[in-house]
Amino acid sequence: MATVTQGSLFDAVDDPTPADTQTLETLRAAAADCRACDLWERATQTVFGEGAAEAELLFVGEQPGDQEDLAGRPFVGPAGRLFDEALAEAQIDRSRAYVTNMVKHFKWEPRGKRRIHQKPNLAEVAACRPWLEAELAVVRPRVLVCLGATAAQGLLGPGFRVTRERGRPVDSHLAPVVIATVHPSSILRAADEEARRVEYDAFVADLRTVAAQLA
Q: What is the pLDDT of residue 179?
């Protein structure tokens, strides 16, 4: 498989009719060797999106975490388990959705024996955006949900504020319905159990709004 550089990355996904010429399988195979930024050097593997190829609902997070990097699958770590719990409570079937991230490689720094998440910078987000645009073009979701500030600002502009706009549809050309909410990892970082419960309930409420758009 050929190495994907910055130039060939855009060649791989910049097609005038990508939904007709690309599939998720071909995009996943090309992204596996992506070298568009330096994050691949320390990551175990590319973590591409997964889910139904013609899903009506598409979730976008920030980047894979430690467990996602090792497993090669998005949202399978602690935040992913909380995400699954919240989806179930909102009566959303994850198997019928497509789940992906703005950035496909895990960015981390060592802290003892642990690998600690680092937020991707603007250049890393920009380098990875063509992959996400290609996923959107293939899946063509009816509802797009941005999980957290990195996804929301990467897709809706740097001035977008999740805290101000969360849980309600916003105007965007990306999908017929676009909604932003918090990333489930932010709930895990809440100060105490009571705060986590409040944040979790608000997250589920946002997901119920998403579910209503699919009804």
A: 98
